[in-house]
Amino acid sequence: MPTEERILKRSLVAILLVSMLGIGFGILSGSFAILFDGVFSLVDAAMTVLSLFVARLITRATLANGLPERLHRRFSMGFWHLEPMVLTLNATILLAVTLYAIFSAVMSLLDGGRVMEFGPAMVYAAVVVTISAAMGWYEHRANRHIQSDFVRMDVHGWIMAGGVTLSLLIAFAIGFSLQDTAHVWLLPYIDPLVLLLVGLVLLPVPIGTLRRAVSEVLLITPDDLLQKVEQVADTILESEGFSAHRAYVARAGRGTQIELYFIVPPDQPPRRLEDWDALRDRIGAAIGGDPRHRWLTIAFTTDPDRAN
Length: 308
Description:
This protein is mainly alpha-helical.
């Protein structure tokens, strides 16, 4: 079974190939739409390298002696917080590139468009559609077992790239068929129009990623996780006769941070420490999740103020 790191490395090689093809064929054909596709892929490749580095840090931090002692002491809370930060940076850069492409396309349309060679453009589009479909299928199958946010985002990226490039192929084929016809006057407008449509289609992708990543950077409480933790806490409350509970949860990439406090009535009989530990284990098992990527604190107190 391929690991997250191996999948991202293979994806990086494919992205670099697509990027070089896009920049090369964009210059050869005179198509800004293809050039934008190549630059977009180049930015994506740079972000994949950063994602790969962060994924390796997170994985090594969960292993015994996986990190140097000095690094482990400096980041004793782990590296989960880096994941949404990388996604925020990635989405911000892609959003800026996309907005620039839309602006450029509008200006080109107002200036009368630009002339391009449709033959090389069609070759590029056909090759990239094939690569995107193959990589998207491969990563989707592999991620069924890995369940990585980085890989899932990469799959979405390949699906979007394939869909956008397929639309380029269709548009260039239409332009190629219009040569030597009465509609030849439309040819200069095809490339900026395609660039505008591609930019508008891609725009929601970085916006959605940025919205989710920023919420994790700000440690905004995820409703689904809070609801699950509170359901478990309510069950324990009823079975153990506790007075109340307080739950504090956050999600940062693949990592979850959970603090759960139970208010114990002062008149309850004392328990052995082993009994409290066994109860903690029961609560942790009920909450679930990968223990390697979960920071779980469970405390018991008779003073409600200590839980606020």
